[in-house]
Specification:
- The structure is a single chain.
- This protein is of the alpha+beta class and 649 residues long.
- 35% of the residues lie in helices and 9% in strands.
- The protein has 22 helices and 17 strands.
- A hairpin with a 5-residue loop joins strand 8 (409-410) and strand 9 (416-417).
Length: 649
């Protein structure tokens, strides 16, 4: 593969070892350069393992990978400031076109293969240097992790990078052959994860390190996904073309049962992991790296070197920065209030300043939630804490931190507001119809009013590509400037969660719906998550503690028969905005059913008319295209390149 030539595999892989990760996690001696000779040493092998942790940053926290995983689904569409990186993947009408040159899908291909080769080298060379299998198995985990991501995205992919299947490659090659989906699963993903489960420790070697249970989670999910692939209920094509049969002779039901059993083993042998007491606890920035978070792309605010970007500088909008939250943040800084009740032209000020707080942060307006998400997915905003723990539904004034003084301002209906008061609120439902202005109006963003309320308001039917609830759960969190506005333009120094203990319950429940059996039913498993969702600790909308336990009511509202559709709805409530959705919909073959149409308002302030948009999702879209750059750089004939590409592109 020309993309995996000597320059990429040797130079990039070994130079990547200079980024030795967050020093809160992995304490390695930085080196200026890395060569093949250095990799042929015990120290080189050990630092290669460190590099595998670092490579989580190349995708997780990246806003363009977020677009690949979210845009074009029922959860998300393009926002007012979106470019082709977001519109192409959204597939709405004639706005964009998904093709081999579309950038976000190509990131995955380009990002993971160098690290797969690093893992190949560790696995191949580690034992000769006396490296313990427990450490080598960390590399086995990451190789399986990367191949699992690849096979879900593109179908079959190469296991041979130039020196043989799963062998370490140091030679430039310009050809490539794609293995089939069953070969990728049965030769790479399953064996690596099984060996990792056997040899990884129950407790992490380092903070955030992989363990038996991390490997269990991904093996259970891989078995579940492969079971769906074998079953293929909606006749989705695969590529390279191959019969939907398992080389080991197992059927889909066998894999669903394996997924269930391994997920239950993970639940019953949790090691250091556990569910947090509330959904708020899982996602609040002050509680990052908690016991529910099993794997994450980590960052630090204490070192520019180890963070790979300045925690107080201007974020690059590129990996290794964590900047995904910017993409679904609208420009709330255009909100206006007045120094006087008369709203004189010289009195108008921006009452919500850009700040490095979890509810605010840097606005890029590239993505927006659909109206259906707000109204239907999160229909219950009273008992269920997950809407409040996912979205920013109230924007509060912070003008005093911007040097405007601790003064009273006047807002909707010329009513007074204090610092910390609600400036704009997104209503929970459409039972009240706000009076909206024409265009941006007095408040600068086209929000409406309700009698007697000092906050501007927008109803769910009124959200648009320009103004919408922000994404709180993955938002900015920083303690570097606690009394001021902080550094909202810097990349986030929060870890970006890749795997959570809660997913064991969803995997087992989905497997049970597909016919697996055991000590817990699908309803039992889902109700563990729903009971937790009913427990409140803090109300973000009210910005105040709230102790409430609605667990019994949440359990009572769970249907007696759990379906795949119900699990997908629960997964969206639990993991909205965390890079799960497209993969959930293609695994269950529900993408076109869920995302073929959606509603949202327009791109101008004051446009609150819900408009229905349609997407033309075809079966071949269930695989992303092989990147054009990969095809251009291979020494193959035009016919061979056409055969290498996924059909339809």
């Amino acid at each position: 593969m020309k993309n995996l030539n000597k320059r990429i595999i040797i130079a990039s892989v070994f130079l990547s070892l200079t980024f030795t990760g967050c020093n809160e996690i992995l304490d390695e001696q930085p080196r200026a350069t890395y060569t093949v000779d250095f990799f042929n040493t015990e120290d080189g092998i050990r630092q290669g393992v460190t590099a595998l942790y670092r490579h989580m940053r190349t995708l997780y926290g990246n806003g363009y990978f977020m677009s690949n995983c979210q845009n074009g689904t029922d959860e998300t569409t393009w926002g007012q400031s979106a470019d082709g990186n977001f519109k192409d993947l959204d597939m709405t009408g004639n706005v964009g076109s998904l093709n081999p040159s579309t950038f976000p899908p190509s990131m995955i291909w380009g990002s993971v293969f160098p690290y797969i080769n690093t893992a190949n080298g560790i696995i191949e060379k580690g034992p000769s240097f006396g490296i313990a299998e427990s450490l080598v198995s960390e590399a086995r985990f990451f190789r399986a992790f990367d191949y699992f991501l690849l096979v879900q995205t593109y179908g079959g992919v190469p296991l041979n990078l130039g020196s043989g299947e799963l062998a370490f490659n140091t030679s430039a090659v310009t050809t490539s052959t794609r293995n089939t989906v069953p070969e990728v699963y049965t030769k790479a993903i399953f064996p690596d994860l099984l060996k990792a489960i056997d040899n990884l420790p129950a407790q992490p070697r380092v903070t955030g390190g992989v363990t038996k249970n991390v490997a269990r989670l991904f093996l259970a999910k891989a078995y579940l996904t492969y079971g769906w692939w074998l079953q293929n209920p909606n006749s989705i094509p695969t590529y390279p073309e191959t019969p939907r049969t398992d080389p080991a002779g197992h059927d889909a039901q066998w894999y669903f049962q394996q997924a269930y059993d391994i997920a239950l083993a993970g639940i019953n042998n949790p090691g250091p992991y556990s569910l947090q007491p509330t959904f708020y606890d899982v996602n609040v920035g002050s509680n990052d790296r908690n016991s529910e978070c099993m794997l994450y792309a980590d960052h630090t605010s204490t070192s520019t070197y180890y963070n790979e970007s300045d925690p107080t500088g201007f974020g690059s909008g590129w990996s290794p920065d964590n900047f995904a939250a910017w993409m679904q943040t609208w420009n709330y800084t255009n909100l206006k209030s007045s120094k006087t009740a008369s709203w004189g032209s010289s009195d108008i000020v921006s009452s919500v300043q850009r700040a490095a707080t979890q509810s605010l942060g840097r606005p890029w307006v590239r993505m927006a939630p659909t109206i259906g998400v707000i109204k239907n997915t999160f229909a219950d905003k009273t008992l269920d804490s997950r809407y409040d723990g996912t979205f920013v539904s109230t924007y509060r004034g912070n003008w005093e931190k911007a040097g405007l003084g601790n003064i009273t301002l006047y807002n909707a209906n010329s009513l007074p507001v204090q610092p910390g008061g609600a400036i704009l609120s997104f209503l929970n439902d459409d039972s009240q119809t706000p009076t909206y202005p024409t265009g941006a109006g007095q408040n600068g963003v086209g929000a409406g009013t309700l009698p007697g309320r000092a906050d501007w308001v927008v109803a769910p039917n009124g959200i648009s590509r320009m103004v919408y609830p922000g994404l709180w759960k993955i938002g900015t969190y920083s303690t570097l400037d606690p009394t001021g506005l902080g550094y909202p333009n810097a990349g986030l120094t929060r870890p970006f969660n890749v795997a959570k203990f809660s997913e064991f319950y969803f995997i087992a429940a989905e497997a049970a719906v597909k016919g697996a059996s055991g000590t817990m039913s699908a309803r039992d498993l889902i109700n563990v998550i729903r009971a937790r969702a009913g427990k409140w600790k803090f109300n973000n909308a009210q910005n105040a503690p709230m102790i409430a336990d609605n667990s019994a009511a949440m359990i009572a509202a769970t249907p007696s028969t759990i379906t795949v559709d119900y699990i997908l709805a629960e997964r969206s409530r639990e993991y909205y905005g965390e890079f799960y959705r497209w993969y959930d919909l293609i695994r269950t073959q529900k993408w076109e059913q869920y995302a073929a149409s959606y509603q949202i308002g327009g791109v101008n302030y004051g446009d609150h008319t819900p408009t229905t948009f349609n997407r033309n999702i075809q079966k071949f879209h269930y695989l992303r295209p092989i990147p054009q750059g990969q095809l251009d750089n291979m020494s193959l004939s035009a016919a061979e390149k056409a055969k290498y590409q996924n059909p339809g592109y």
